[in-house]
Amino acid sequence: MLWLAVACPAPALAERETVVQSYPNGGVHFEIQIDENRFRHGWTREFREDGSLMSEYMHEHGVKQGLARFYYDTGELMTVWVYEDGRRHGQSIGYFKDGAVKDRGFYKNDLLHGPVTLYHPDGTVKAQLEFKEGRRHGESKTYYEDGQVQFVYRHDNDRMLESEHYGRDGQLLEKQYYPSPGGR
InterPro entries, alphabetically (predicted)? Predict the structure, then answer.
């Protein structure tokens, strides 16, 4: 995680002021750092009514830029996104409450783009998916808990072309082809 903090430094401190918005009970709802033009600049933090941190985003002159982190209600880190010019761009990582990686993927211009890997709680791979500009594209696989392939899917621009279903013993159980609309 150190690379994320180094790659996305905070804007200069001298330019910021902090604005606090509260819940009716007086607890802090938002802490928003702003610049001299009153644009969000620096960290924006959102808290739950119980005072626990829900999320925090980095802004530069009103635009999301750099890190965004989301937290479980029990305080553990849930998800990290990176923003570039107001859009998710770069690696995204989701976590189980125990800190193990739950999912890992990449965004480009706010759309999933490239490989996405989902994990079982024990760290073994649950699924490997491919995306192109937010659409399923290429080969994706899901796995049984023991690592054996369960399904293989092939997509082209979000349209499923074929699927294969495998048993726990690795034997092909079923293969299906999906004709394109209009029979082409």
Answer: MORN_2 (IPR011652)
